[in-house]
Amino acid sequence: MAKLILSMDGLVLKEIPLTRERTSIGRKPHNDIQIDNLAISGEHAAIVAILNDAFLEDLNSTNGTYVNGQSIKKHVLKDNDVVELGKYRLKFLKDAPDFSAGSTFEKAFVAAPEAAKLGASAKTHTDTMLGFQPETTLTEASSTSSGGWSAAQGEQQAAPATPAAGEPVGVVQILSGRNAGRELDLSKSLTTLGKPGFQVAVITRRPHGYFITHVEGDSFPILNGKQLDAQAHLLSDHDVIEIAGVKMEFYLRPAA
Question: Which candidate, 161, 166, 114, 156, places its Cα nearest to that of 134?
Fold first, then answer.
């Protein structure tokens, strides 16, 4: 399990396991990690943990959020990254994925514009470590880097994941936009949907169903006409989802 080590001036104050899908950080008492210091905004930053990945987002804080000395708005956390909030430090420690025989590891990632600033070397390191190559499945613009709406899936090439025999497969059918009518099988553990830099959500496949979770953006996805919150929500057959202005229907396709 990933965790954070909170310290100040080299003194370790607390060890915090990332047990929640969304962990808020700030000065106000309602935050999951409260840092009572005037240099910290009331709601300073948040970490969204999806499977083996963690996404850090600055929540328009007054003094900013830094990772390894660089100011960030959004950042995919890597093992041993140091998040700096005023005088406080949060070191991110990530458990190594298990690539032993018979194990599978899947990852999907749609790069936000800010992530490109991290440099090609960081991306190459991450992709090599995870054995992952991104595959853009649906794209409304010519490329995701231009800010177009997209859907992406990822897999460990040596061991692709498939649903158990007889288990229905989740499918998303696009209802609006250029890709209306097209379908995306949710056969991987994680599928990323949305417009990088504007609104991004992920659908995760778990033993007890498919769940949608907000990852990026000030506004949350809409499910059956109601705006979601920061928690993961179980999807039901024929739910209608709206992400970044694109409507889609989730349904379960019976196994062949």
Answer: 156
Bridge partners of residue 3, in order along the sequence = 17, 93
Report residue 55 as tokens: 């996404």
Residue whose pair of structure tokens reads 């889609």 in the numeric block: 248
The string of pLDDT tens digits covering residues 112-170 is 333 333 333 333 332 322 222 233 233 333 333 344 666 665 433 333 445 566 688 99
CA diameter of the chain? 60
Using CA atoms of 193, 116, 154, 241 in order, give the dihedral in degrees to the nearest 10. 0
**Torsion (CA) 65, 231, 117, 198 in degrees, nearest 10:** -110
pLDDT digits (tens, 9 = 90+) for 51-72: 778 899 999 999 999 999 999 9
Q: In the beta sheet, which residues pair with residue 11? A: 8
Q: Are 50 and 42 in contact (CB under 8 A)?
A: no
DSSP 145: G
